Automatic annotation (TrEMBL):
GO terms for biological process: signal transduction. PANTHER family: ATRIAL NATRIURETIC PEPTIDE RECEPTOR 3 ISOFORM X1 (PTHR44755:SF11), NATRIURETIC PEPTIDE RECEPTOR 3-RELATED (PTHR44755). The keyword Transmembrane helix applies. Keywords: Membrane, Transmembrane, Transmembrane helix. The chain crosses the membrane at residues 21-41. Gene3D superfamilies: 3.40.50.2300. SUPFAM superfamilies: Periplasmic binding protein-like I (SSF53822). One of its GO terms (molecular function) is peptide hormone binding. The keyword rRNA-binding does not apply. This is Receptor ligand binding region domain-containing protein. InterPro entries: ANP_Clearance_Receptor (IPR052612), Peripla_BP_I (IPR028082).
Length: 212
């Protein structure tokens, strides 16, 4: 008589959970923080180099139009897990969630500005400069999602605009990205990592596992 393997003790609720649910909730939380922080909190002079603030940096212009511009820098190649074709639908769901809960004022439009960095350092750097130029004036950068491309963007972010520009990513696995970011002298001062793991934490986990 052949025995069938025991059923997995996973809750039916978890089994029905969409595979991108974790990513969706992550981006929802990130956008909630961005929306509340940028739109509702008072301005703070947090720049690493003094610059004259440009009119386009404001979310609400003098003409009354309000727009939150989010620069998305990721590869278009779907062989990368966090690529533009995979992430765009997640961001759309996140925006729907934000609108439904009225987390940011209804008059504030959200504009997604996407760039394909091909996981290249130089290309990602140019994309970040294009996304924060006078024609675009992005308020926050999502990505890059490849560590090689993320490093130069996260380095220059503190010198973009008078107050720098936040760089939010689920990547940043190498050791340097976990270094302190409190002061302008810190290399990745404007970087916010939303990922739950890094190579450093994985290394410590393996060491503890071997010791046990």
């Amino acid at each position: 008589m052949v025995r069938r393997p025991a059923a997995s003790p996973v809750s039916p609720v978890l089994q029905r959970r969409p595979k991108d649910a974790g990513t969706w909730f992550l981006f929802v939380n990130v956008l909630i923080v961005v929306g509340l922080g940028i739109v509702m909190l008072p301005p703070v002079d947090a720049g690493c180099r003094p610059l004259v603030r440009k009119e386009c940096e404001k979310i609400c212009r003098t003409n009354g139009n309000c727009e939150l511009r989010i620069v998305v820098i990721m590869p278009a190649n779907t062989s990368v897990e966090a690529s533009l074709p995979r992430v765009r639908p997640v961001l759309e769901k996140a925006e729907e969630h934000i609108r439904r809960r009225a987390i940011i004022p209804a008059k504030v439009a959200i504009r997604w500005i996407s760039y394909d960095d091909r996981c290249e350092q130089a290309r990602a750097t140019v994309m970040a400069m294009d996304g924060t130029g006078s024609e675009t004036c992005g308020h926050v950068i999502l990505g890059p999602t490849c560590d090689f491309a993320l490093a130069p963007v996260a380095r220059i972010a503190r010198y973009i605009y008078n107050d720098g520009i936040p760089v939010l990513t689920g990547a940043g696995y190498t050791f340097d990205f976990e270094e302190p970011k409190t002061f302008c002298e810190n290399e990745f001062h404007m970087l916010i990592r939303t990922g739950l793991v890094s190579f450093k934490r994985m290394a410590y986990f393996m060491i503890d596992l071997i010791r046990q």
